[in-house]
Amino acid sequence: MSPTRTVVAVAAFALTSQLSLSAQTAGPYSLASRSKGSATAPITVYEMSDFQCPYCRRFAVETFPTLDQEYIATGKVRWVFVNFPLTSIHPNAVPAAQVATCAGKQGAFWAVHDLLYKHQEAWAPLKEAGPFFLSLADSAQIDKSTLLTCLKAPETMAEIKADAEGSERSGAQSTPTFYIEGGLLAGAHPLPVFRQVLDSIYAQKAKAKK
pLDDT (tens digit, 9 = 90+) per residue, 159-204? Predict the structure, then answer.
């Protein structure tokens, strides 16, 4: 195996192993709640992202909705969100990840995901963003008391920490970074770049089946 492939293989093992640990420590529905698309999709994308990152917001708002329609909804891609809060520069990233993760326990991860990115400019500069995050419970139609219990649970932070550690071990150094079938793609690239990558992988997998 070439050095490059060895690095990719190690990155893949590190990320998938850490995600398995995350699911085990935070409950059986942890990973599923942050996944979108068919479990049998031929391509799986792991998005290592930070809710306070402006580049992550740009991807979530401008690019992801189209990828959702063209690849996830059509059964080509399964998308998994991995928490990778950059705490040294984004002080509200972890609380945001906690809220989204806990919303996922009530089946509302993606609803809160969208709300956090949509309103990022409102909560990102706040010294105390907790009240704003709790207000999202009403918009996402989830139970606030259940959310508060989850936010206080040590398992929630353990899940986010496991995600972040797996992201680092996979080789991710910035957000957003995407692990796509054996390789890392760093940056909020425009839609044509993702289409090129995903279409190429899909064509290869379809060809291999013949």
Answer: 999 999 999 999 999 999 999 998 999 999 999 999 999 999 999 9
| pLDDT (0 to 100) of residue 207 | 85
Give CA–CA dist 79/43, Å, rounded: 9
CA gap 203, 196 in Å, rounded: 11
Strands 183-186 and 77-83: unpaired
Structure token pair of residue 166: 């797996």
Side-chain half-sphere CA neighbours of 62 within 13 A? 12
C-beta of residue 83 within 8 angstroms of C-beta of residue 163: yes
Fold of 3-35+42-60+73-209: Glutaredoxin (3.40.30)
Q: Are 90 and 56 in contact (CB under 8 A)?
A: no
Enter the tokens of residue 80: 């998994």
Beta bridge partners of 36: 79
CA–CA gap between residue 183 and residue 202 (Å, rounded): 14
Q: For residues 163 and 80, what is the distance between their CA atoms, to the nearest angstrom?
A: 11
